[in-house]
Write a structure and sequence with these properties.
It is built from five helices and twelve strands. By secondary structure, it is α+β, with helices and mostly antiparallel strands. The protein has two domains: 34 residues; 141 residues, Immunoglobulins (Immunoglobulin-like), CATH 2.60.40.10. The strands form three sheets. Strands 2, 3, 6, 8, 11 and 12 form a six-stranded mixed beta sheet that branches. The protein has a three-stranded mixed beta sheet with strand order 1-4-7. A hairpin with a 7-residue loop joins strand 9 and strand 10.
Length: 197
């Protein structure tokens, strides 16, 4: 009887231990199971905190209703004129501008004058979040030298009294005073994207 018990115990020990190859296989299985469990992705319960804290996505777009706009002359030379379209957040909350403004030259009665707005890549579009009272600017460049069949003995184009500027991704314009002389080359104005002023 003792012999049978001893043989039974030995058989159980051998079954538990197995051969060296079986032991290695069992170890591999255990390691693989642990590794795959650790690598299993955990579904996020909420969006990453960084996107929720990004002021450009947390605030709304700046609209004509909250922006005050002005065109400022910066320099002139050799028939070239340079200026800035400056917008200021007059609202009570932050808002964001990202990209290029629309711009249309107008006469005193509000009629459209020739305007050929061309976007320049420097600086290019980037979100600019404006706190209340903060401003952003876009660079402007145009010429006063007649081109093509434009007259040389009088202004090349009718001089604009004002302009309509549309903030990026919006449809309602702001009314701006122009008063910076005629814009030749068919009303060609180069404009950059907005940047923090």
């Amino acid at each position: 009887m003792r012999r049978l018990v001893a043989l039974g115990a030995l058989g159980l020990a051998l079954a538990a231990c197995g051969s060296p190859r079986q032991a290695a296989d069992q170890s591999t299985i255990v390691v693989d199971t642990t590794t795959s469990a650790a690598a299993a992705p955990v579904p996020p319960s909420s969006p990453p905190a960084t996107s929720a804290q990004d002021p450009a996505t947390a605030s709304g777009r700046c609209t004509a209703a909250v922006l005050a706009g002005a065109v400022e002359s910066t320099e002139a030379g050799a028939g070239n004129r340079y200026g800035k379209l400056v917008v200021t957040n007059n609202g009570a909350a932050p808002c964001t501008v990202n990209g290029y403004s629309g711009l249309q030259l107008l006469d005193a009665a509000g009629n459209a004058l020739p305007t050929d707005l061309q976007r320049k890549p420097d600086p290019g579009p980037a979100p600019v979040t404006l706190a209340p009272g903060a401003a952003a600017a876009a660079n402007l460049h145009w010429t006063v030298v007649p081109t093509g069949d434009e007259p040389v003995d009088r202004p090349c184009q009718a001089e604009a009294a004002k302009a309509a500027a549309i903030p990026p991704d919006e449809t309602q314009p702001m009314s701006l005073r122009w008063g910076l002389g005629p814009v030749c080359a068919g009303g060609k104005i180069e404009i950059s994207a907005f940047y923090a002023a």
